[in-house]
Amino acid sequence: MVAPSILSADFGKLAQEVEALCEAGADLIHVDVMDGHFVPNLTIGPMVVEAVAKVASVPLDIHLMVSDNPFFVELFAPLKPRYISFHYEGEHHHHRVIQQIRSHGVAPAIAINPGTPVALLEEVVQYVDMVLLMSVNPGFGGQKFIPIYEKIDQLRQLLQKRNPECRIEVDGGVNGTNASKLRRAGVDILVAGSYIFGHEDYKEAIERLR
Ligand code: DX5
Ligand code: ZN
Fold first, then answer.
1. Nearest atom of ligand 1 to the alpha carbon of 197
2. 107-139 burial by CB neighbour count: b if 16+ within 10 A, else e?
3. For residue range 138-150, what is the model confidence (pLDDT) as tens digits?
4. How much is the pTM?
5. Is 27 known to be catalytic?
6. Residue of 155, 170, 165, 151 whose CA lies nearest to 209
7. What is the C-alpha to C-alpha distance for residues 118 and 44, in angstroms, rounded to an integer?
8. What are the strands of the beta sheet with 83-87, ordered from one edge?
9. CATH architecture of 2-209
10. What is the distance in A from the centroid of ligand 1 to the CA of 142?
């Protein structure tokens, strides 16, 4: 699946951008929520995301990059996204947040930074529906891809043992050059921001990723 990240969209015409992505074949709309604490950037809150949800014909994939996960889950879960991901590094009580997300009927996902080892997820993966492997340090679009292929391998092995149904998503620096290698490595969902928005024709960009 391809999940375009709206972080690189023209926010002055966000509704048209989201409609264009859906028409271009997006499977999910990836929404980056940043709080200015967990990452040095601040993005959008639930009012804007509600407007996005209204025009999107595919489900939302909300990626929280925040320090206070329970607070943000309560704000965004009522919008009924397909997934809410939160970062392993920013949370002490992983199972509690996973349960909180699930209690809203939303699929919980856990995200790790490029520098965080997959092995830390050993006691968590059986409770989530997706793992998001960051291939840049979170905070900004348009950064250079960090080759995390070994981590994808390790995660695949861990999931085989503990949760074979769990999906793998990769986010950061995904483009037409690394997409096929990521797919072959076992990635289910590719997030791409600047690559798609760098194309005049979003459909062509999404098809190239696929
Ligand atoms: C980065 C975000 C990504 C970002 C990806 O913190 O989580 O979703 O939008 O952008 P690109 O594809 O430009 O790296
Ligand atoms: Zn993201």
1. 13
2. bbbbbbbbebebeebeebbebbbbbbbbbbebb
3. 999 999 999 999 9
4. 0.98
5. no
6. 170
7. 29
8. 2-4, 189-192, 167-171, 130-134, 107-112, 83-87, 60-65, 29-34
9. Alpha-Beta Barrel (3.20)
10. 7
